[in-house]
Amino acid sequence: MNTTEKQKTRNRPYGDQVAISLLAVFLILAVLVAMGIYIKRRSLPEYVGRTLTEAEMQEVIDRNSPLTTYVHLSPNADFPRKSEIKKITIHHMAANLSLERLGESFGRIDRSASANYGIDVNGNVALYVEEANRAWTSSDAENDNMAVTIEVANEEIGGDWKVSDRSFDALIDLCTDICLRNGIEELVYTDDSQGNLTTHKMFNPNTDCPGPYLGSRMWEIAELVNERLRSE
Ligand SMILES: [Zn+2]
Predict the structure, then answer these.
(1) Cis peptide leading into 80, omega within 30 of 0?
(2) What pLDDT, in 10s, does the model give residues 80-102?
């Protein structure tokens, strides 16, 4: 046996030990991650993270906006929210997703994102986080604890990120309904986070959400909703 062969004989068991140790560490980590996901899912309120029956869906809608036609409750939320509802925050999807597709995306725990409501390009309304809970939407816990957050689909991808007239009208209806049911007497838009009608980019300098089109119509949104509130 020459020196190289002796070395090999000595190193082989050591190499095996390292491989076995690494495998053990990997397995332990995998079990811990699986346990974490299991515990998180188990601690979620009933109805969250699964397909609901018609009756369950109706029960959920009865506690939220009657304008809702689709429900898929996201696990990405704080249950319940920590503050009373005083605000509305508008977002755009930066995409033209169906309500189901947006629900799938908010259903992923690893995405850590959600919104209370979504509006598709045809003006249909979905509920992803019940109003009693805080959605993870605006990069600001304080805002989202006080706000009902809404994602609106874009009919134009890029450019001004226009939203359809049907989506815009549904947004006015939904904001009015949220105000009426939660005792918000007036929506105040101040172009900064002081008002009670806010946007994502007020809290995160790295986003342009809700895009130029909705951004330029925020004053009008407040005005249209307030007109409706006054006539109620
Ligand atoms: Zn946003």
Answers:
(1) yes
(2) 999 999 999 999 999 999 999 99
Q: How far is the CA of 193 from the centre of ligand 1 (A)?
A: 14
- For residue 113, the CA-to-ligand 1 centroid distance in Å is 10
Q: How far is CA 33 from each of CA 21, 27, 100, rounded to the nearest angstrom?
A: 18, 10, 27
CB 75 within 8 A of CB 49: yes
For residue 226, the CA-to-ligand 1 centroid distance in Å is: 23
149 C-alpha vs ligand 1 centroid, how far in Å?
Answer: 9
CA of 163 to the centre of ligand 1 (A): 14
Could you tell me whether strands 117-119 and 125-127 are parallel, antiparallel, or unpaired per DSSP bridges? Answer: antiparallel
pTM score, whole prediction: 0.84
| Alpha-carbon gap, residue 222 to 232, rounded angstroms | 15
Chosen CATH of 54-231 out of 3.40.30.10, 3.30.479.10, 3.40.50.720, 3.40.80.10: 3.40.80.10
Dump pLDDT digits (tens) for 140-183.
Answer: 999 999 999 999 999 999 999 999 999 999 999 999 999 999 99
* Ligand 1 midpoint to CA 111 (Å): 14
